[in-house]
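Researcher: Sit down with what I've pasted below and flag anything odd:
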Amino acid sequence: MSLSRKEQIEAFLKETPHDPFLHYALALEYLKCGDDAQALALFTQLTKESPNYVGTYYHLGKLQEKLQMQGNALTTYKTGMDIARKLNDNHSYSELLSAYNTLHDELSDW
């Protein structure tokens, strides 16, 4: 019997528990399964333990939007933009800026 993708990632995490990519991948698997609470917890933990893992901020922000946590999402995008700028990661910065501006504009229309 083969392991699910989630089980494979969990097995890899036992071998390398501090690998931010594996934590990120596991959070994405929880999102795919519809376990938003677990995904939120993992993404949030990842921002604390590996703050320079910039990809986390976009997905965390989108999840926060889905969970009606718009203020948190704006803060998450802004934090991610600041880190992306420090790392000279222009692609991530642009994605985060776009998400920030879209949400900000939607909230301003209310």
